[in-house]
Amino acid sequence: MDRESISLLLDTVRRYVREKLVPLEAEVAETDCVPESVLADFRQMGLYGLTVPEKYGGLGLSAAEEVEAVIELAWASVAFRSAVSINLGVGTQCLVMDGTEEQKREWLPKLAAGAVSSFALTEPGSGSDSAGLMTRAVRDGDDYVLNGTKRFITNAPVADLITVMARTHPERLPKNAHITAFLVPAKTPGLRIGPKDRKMGQAGALSADVYLEDVRVPARNVLGGVEGRGFITAMKVLDRGRLNVSAMCVGQARRILNEALTYSSQRMQFGKAISEFQLVQAMLADSRAELYAAECMLRDAARRYDVGERISLEASCCKMYASEMAGRVADRAVQIHGGAGYMRDTPVERFYRDVRLFRIYEGTTQIQQLVIARELLRHGLD
Fold first, then answer.
1. CA 10 → CA 15, 30, 43, 372, distances in Å?
2. Of 74, 268, 364, 382, which is the most buried if we count CB atoms within 10 A?
3. Which of 3.40.50.720, 1.10.510.10, 1.20.140.10, 1.10.3660.10 is the CATH number of 232-379?
4. pLDDT tens-digit profile of 265-318?
């Protein structure tokens, strides 16, 4: 997209988020559901297909453009961003990077138009150790038969397409070549979605277990048409996915800091606004400085990604720092609000619970530390 079109898109998202989504936050928190009218608007605005190439019906945003759109979307409750999150990341990028042309033509236009994708990697016994997954896929003629259980799968309750990672070899092969990715339509017989997860926060951001019981999938649904490339594909899309999550952290931190700034300017104590107290100013200042650092890291890493640089270290730095930063900003916002910040009718209480997950999914902070250290020891300082 040209610069004028991007500017128009960002302005549209910004206004829609502030005028339509923010007033709906309490309803979403209460009902644990994003209204269908909002999802219809997302489809009309093209948000499901932001990262799908234009030739397949999407908007084809670069990484730098994508993170700006996500920052704007994440001004509101993260449940709204979650509705399109997998489509922006692994749900489409696995296909874009490693799918066959036939698979791209079949699925990318549907996903760009608003079909919902989901990515099933995590299991009850394997999370960060994704190479240890136990879901099996056994070849049977022109099909594979899948059996296993997946856990905490984002958008599973509403998914149209689930990319399932499964073992095609019982033994653990070098470079995780025992793992294959399968494109599984959600209505495939034998695939069952469990009850919606009940979480600490992020109401409206749906997740659930996925059960596969003798699920028969045609061999043509092997992502890329080749066994043993599933783990490699997942790793390839992680860098951009971590930039997306970092952008969400930045967007949420901007909103939370705005809530703290507004409240501190209005709340009176000892005859003046608490924003005039230096220790409150210190919390506001620390939050803004850390937010600025995260913004700079994110935009630099996205620019590097778009020019073809390898950014595994930078993407992990962004995800680690931005997620931890959002937690600190939320904590300070609750402190600035005082007792009001502990009440359910105050937005910062909800944000405090919502942002806690940022440090866990898309690779925990500790996993990011391992990636950063590994890259540093392998390549040294530039």
1. 9, 28, 15, 32
2. 74
3. 1.20.140.10
4. 999 999 999 999 999 999 999 999 999 999 999 999 999 999 999 999 999 999
